[in-house]
Amino acid sequence: MHQPEMQQPGAQLPSMDNWRDWALDLQAKPRVKRTLSELNDNSANAVYLISDGAKELVLKQYAPNPAYQSSGEQLLAIDSWQNAIARPPYSLAAAVLYRDPRNHYAIFEYFDAATLQAGAALNQSLLETLCQAIHRYHCYSIQWPVDPISYTGRCEHYLSVANNHFSTAGITKLEQRYRELRDDCVQHLQRAGESLVCCHNDLNPGNILYLKNSSTPAPLRILDWDFASPGVAAMDFASLGVELGIDCKLLATIAGLQEIQLATAYRVYTLICDTYEEILRAARR
Predict the structure, then answer these.
(1) Most CB within 10 Å of its CB: which of 61, 153, 175, 179?
(2) Stronger pLDDT, 195 or 264, i.e. the higher one
(3) Is 0.85 surpassed by the pTM of this model?
(4) Burial profile 239-263: b = 16 or more Cβ within 10 angstroms, e = fewer
(5) HEC string of 209-242?
(6) Are 127 and 251 in contact (CB under 8 A)?
(7) Nearest C-alpha neighbor of 167 from the set 277, 251, 254, 282
(8) Cis status of the peptide bond prior to 101, with omega within 30 of 0
(9) Does the 14-113 domain belong in CATH 3.30.200?
(10) CATH architecture of 116-284
(11) Rounded-to-10 torsion of CA 22, 25, 30, 33
């Protein structure tokens, strides 16, 4: 798997040849202003700030993913979901302005914002704002044409893919962790009795923007909804906590969740991430 390609300012990408198909009222064929390396998601995807001289947009180029691929039906649903959350009363996402029919790239609205930094910048006030934002988009009424996420199914899928990349010893360790989770954590989540909510499932620092010079109550935009699905609310908060290194007990208190359920979700999410990231690393070798 190749690394994302850096582009010089003024460069034009092959995907820009179809700029008129985007129907975005551009004045000319856009050019790259800079590579948005801070938005890279540790995969081979590449993200660029582009402009026609008057309007700034974000272009994300997708590389083949050995671990996960959404169906066309899922992508349509995700885009619809993301665009709804980009509009009032939520205003918590970046709108999808165009998606290539083959999903080689997509165009998003651009915000003058900074990505979050794990650890030091996460004071309690910001954590409260983040938790309030997550609770808000969890209230979005789900319209979904496919099955909700299965946490056991996701783990088993990644383990199956991992068999193509890992040594026997590496697989054995991951499978042992999964067996422990399946018998303990996953069953606990399934017994929670909660209705499924709109879950982002990938709340890493690069996917959370803090808007500059914003006076809005929640000056945040959440990016990259590619893994979104109906799911258990605690799993979305676990995504936030694990990715940003937040203490589970503290996050449970701020988010208003049962600590035992959030701790369970932390374990499940950590295994899913560890397996996924190992697959991506192995595929790059």
Answers:
(1) 61
(2) 264
(3) yes
(4) bbbbbbebebeebbebbebeeebbb
(5) EEECCCCCCCCEEECCCCCCEEECHHHHHHHHHH
(6) yes
(7) 282
(8) no
(9) yes
(10) Alpha-Beta Complex (3.90)
(11) -110
